[in-house]
Amino acid sequence: MIRVELAKMLRRPLTWVTIAALNALPTLVAVLLALTDLGPRPGTGPPFLSAVLTDGTLFPLAALAIVLPLFLPVAVAVVGGDAIAGEVQSDTLRYLLARPVSRTRLLVAKLTSVVAFVTLATLVVATVAYVEGKLLLGNAPTTGVVSISGSTLTQVQMAERTAMAFAYVVLAMLGVAAIALFLSTMTDSAIGAALGTIGFLVASTVLLGLDAAESLRPYLITRHWLAFVDLFRDPIRWHDIVRGILSQLAYLAVFAGAAWANFATRDVNR
Amino acid sequence: MIRTRGLSKHYGQVHAVDAIDLEVGEGDVYGFLGANGSGKTTTVRMLLGLVLATSGEAELFGRAMPKAATEVLPRVGALVEGPGAYPHLSGHANLSLFDAAGRDRLTRSRRRSRVGEVLEQVGLDPGDGRPVKAYSLGMRQRLGLASALMRRPPLLILDEPTNGLDPQGIRDIRTLLLELNREGTTIFLSSHLLAEIERMATRVGVLDRGRLLLQEDMSVLRAPTGLVRVRTPDVEDAVALLNGHVVGRDADVLSVRSSDAAELNHLLVGAGVRVSEITPIRPSLEETVLAATGAS
Predict the structure, then answer these.
(1) What distance in Å separates residue A163's CA from the closest CA in chain B?
(2) Which end of chain B has a smaller Cβ tally under 10 Å, C or N?
(3) Are B142 and B124 in contact, with CB atoms under 8 Å apart?
(4) d(CA A58, CA B121)
């Protein structure tokens, strides 16, 4: 069933439209940077953006930092929200279940395909950004990259840490994927499920900036998203990264469990 | 093949399906009749394990549903409330995806050829690369039927299978289904079209507001009433000859009480009465159904 769901995901226009949209903003940023050569002032703007002017190979990281807070989660919400509700809308859910495909297996396959989508999307963003960085931005081949902490990282270290950063971004989307899947089992409207998920994320972001919500902060889903920056300290600061992964796994467990509990015994009336 | 005991589905106070006992035998074409909203589709969904019954039991192939769904449903082909397909893919691609979903022990090449075969069987072109969103309603209906037939199931559960088809399409599908039935496929056919059921069914169940009002073999329902309709140009002679047996007269048509039309014809013709039409009267399904629903 996982194979079938992956095939469906790859053959859907929605998948590729979303990925294209994800690439649009970093591309625009790259073009603007190349034309103006104006980096953000230190301490403002997305991480890595000032560094890319001198070293274009860092642009994939900057691109990730651009899409992570908003665009990637929205894409995951849209694709995840479509998981079950989309099958309802195309009148195919009942035929899948009557084939029969067990409801649990269907959920697992759907979740797997959403995670595969996130992986694919981040890979495409990174590849496109790498090419753009090479072509458009600073091409000063340095012997090493200066880490956020001030020491120098070798090319190999950079490659390792970039790979880890991408893995972290994929993991950071697990919670969103699970929430979207859960809402997708609650409603027959794919858009409704996506909007609900986005609403949840907006709420988390708002609370994150609110001092009165201090006590909630460690548990918010968006709390540790940008912790991948810590991978580029020397030595790596694992604290927030581990926290981030654990909180995503907790969200995954809770919402995937809720999705299962809701879907396994639900009447399929459409 | 299908058996339910007191199968019910309640939504709050509404009894969508109310304690029905279905009995569908092997080789039947079972016509499940009912107006829109009478609970047909909910019943079909319960049989397939899509909707969980509030109370009562359902069995397919003697196995309890939905508990035995994984063993039972591979042997069932279903069309429920309109076909479903991924609109951006071709019919062939849709069927391949459905075929690959769920467990099945066929090789890939066998699967591919069976998708082509079943598309041809329902009158679609397997080489048609257009996406399903470009299909007409009738083509989608055929595709849905193809999906139900794909595994050559011994039991077909079809909800309004001729919906959206033109007269030629309806005829094609009817012929196809009757052919499958001759080869041994049991067919459970839900419809609100009396004429369609009358033509195909060997057994009929009538659902009205969630209750099963009537369930009987077609041969019983349509048994002769003991009346024979005779059309003759020699009406007066006929009435004189059959004195006492004529129960109705409408111009040149007589209703005659007789259990044997052949004997009656022999008698009339022997006495020099010309007969232009003679038919034993059977109750129409429509009359039976209306009588049943009217009585409730």
Answers:
(1) 34
(2) C
(3) yes
(4) 58
Q: How far is B134 from chain A (nearest CA, A)?
A: 14
pLDDT (tens digit, 9 = 90+) per residue, B25-45?
999 999 999 888 889 999 999
Contact B85/A12, CB-based, under 8 Å? Answer: no
Instruction: Give the strand pairing for B2-11 and B55-60.
Output: antiparallel
Please report the pLDDT score of residue B111 as a whole number.
76
- Spell out which residues of chain A touch residue B49, defining contact as CB-CB under 8 Å: 97-98, 100
Which stretches of chain A score pLDDT less than 50? none
Q: What is the number of CB-based contacts under 8 A between chain A and chain B? A: 76
* Cα Rg of chain A (Å, integer): 20
Write the single-letter amino acid at B232: T
Contact A102 B52 (CB under 8 A): no
Q: What pLDDT is attached to residue B287?
A: 84
User: 3-state class of B76 per DSSP?
Assistant: strand
Which of A5, A6, A99 is the best mutation test for B, with the most CBs of B within 10 A?
A99
Report residue B288 as tokens. Answer: 């039976």
Q: Any idea which residue has 């939905």 for tokens?
A: B66
Pairs from A232-237 (Cβ < 8 Å, separation ≥ 24): A232/A61, A232/A147, A232/A148, A232/A153, A232/A161, A232/A165, A233/A147, A233/A148, A233/A149, A234/A147, A234/A148, A234/A149, A234/A150, A234/A151, A234/A153, A236/A161
B contacts of A13 (beta carbons < 8 Å): 88
Residue type at A42 in one-letter notation? P
pTM exceeds 0.95, yes or no: no
Residue A216 CB contacts under 8 Å (≥ 6 apart), including other chains = A207
